[in-house]
Structures are given as C-alpha cells and as structure tokens.
Design goal:
Length: 186
C-alpha cells in the first residue's frame, strides 16, 4: 500500500514547548493567518506544544483537507464517548487531584481551579473520531468512538467533578474536533 505522509506543514510545526515556557503569540498569529480554518486552541495545544506527537498519531493529516473545529457536547456525552489508548477510560487517572484540591486548595494542574469554580475548562480538549483517525494513519490502539488527543487531566477532572455533583450531566462544554475540512463525496 502506498501512503503519502503529509503531517503538519512547517508553518504549523511549533517548538514543542508549553505556552508557559516561551511566548507563542507570534507563532499562533502567523499560523492562523496562513490557516484561518483551524481553531486557535488547536494551534496552541497541538501545533505549538505537541507537534511531534500529533504527527506520529495522525501522519496523514493534511491541513488542506482536514481541520480542527470547535464543537460543544454535554458532560454526559463526553464521559460516554471520549476514551484514551485502547478505548480505556481516562476518568480515574487524575481524580485524586480533584479530591486533594477540594480538601487543601492545592494540587492538580493549572486548569483545575477554574473547573472547580466555574464548572468548565479554560481551554478545550482535542478529540478525533476513531474511524476518521484510522483513515488518516492513526495506530490501532486509539480509543473508540472518540480518541482524546490532548486533555487527559481535564477529562479526568471533569469525570470526578461530575461524580461529586459539582458539574451536571447536561452542562455543555467546548471540544476541538479534528475532522474533514470538507466532507468527502460519497
């Protein structure tokens, strides 16, 4: 089988550092100018912070054919449909951070205080539908029906906050979904 590897173009291949380690403003502005159909948070989280990991996960991602767009889903939908490697739940992975934060006011990543206070995340996790991901070269271990590319702490915190009754199942939260820019003709 012949496979063309497109991946992220150089304009979208950032330094692989967190936004706290270096100033991303110039990179993000240039990337969005070149590719305005991409969500800003995708450019920040994936292109700036984790470009190598993304290219390994979705080697046939083509910015001319594919996009990353904002969508909103209920907490219930997120917890039922978004999985991690091997379709494993990520729900319990960092739940103890929530418990520690509620008890002591410390612990967890920088997103946890806002999630506790406002019932939402400060930036949206990035997901991809498994069948789409597999069609552009994803490895067989990805989760189904949706794979969590970026945001494991946030989804784990969400599950625990929902379990504790601090976020309702009906609450709507943003997600960034990697998908077709224009759906292919069937």
């Amino acid at each position: 089988m012949f496979c063309v590897y497109v991946m992220l173009p150089k304009e979208l291949f950032g330094p692989g550092k967190t936004i706290y380690a270096t100033d991303p403003k110039r990179f993000i502005e240039a990337a969005l100018k070149a590719f305005p159909h991409l969500d800003r948070e995708f450019v920040t989280q994936i292109c700036f912070e984790h470009p190598t990991r993304f290219n390994k996960l979705l080697p046939n991602f083509d910015v001319l054919l594919h996009t990353a767009q904002r969508t909103h889903r209920s907490v219930e939908w997120i917890l039922a449909n978004v999985t991690y490697d091997g379709s494993k739940s990520i729900h319990d992975a960092w739940a103890h951070h929530v418990d520690q934060y509620l008890k002591n006011g410390t612990g967890g990543s920088e997103v946890l205080p806002d999630m506790v206070k406002f019932g939402k995340w400060s930036f949206a996790p990035v997901i991809v539908k498994a069948d789409f991901a597999l069609s552009i070269g994803a490895p067989d271990y990805i989760g189904e029906p949706y794979y969590l590319i970026e945001g494991t702490h946030r989804v784990s915190y969400l599950a625990r906050l929902h379990e504790l009754g601090l976020i309702t199942a009906e609450a709507s939260l943003p997600l960034i979904e990697v998908t077709w820019r224009f759906p292919p003709n069937k």
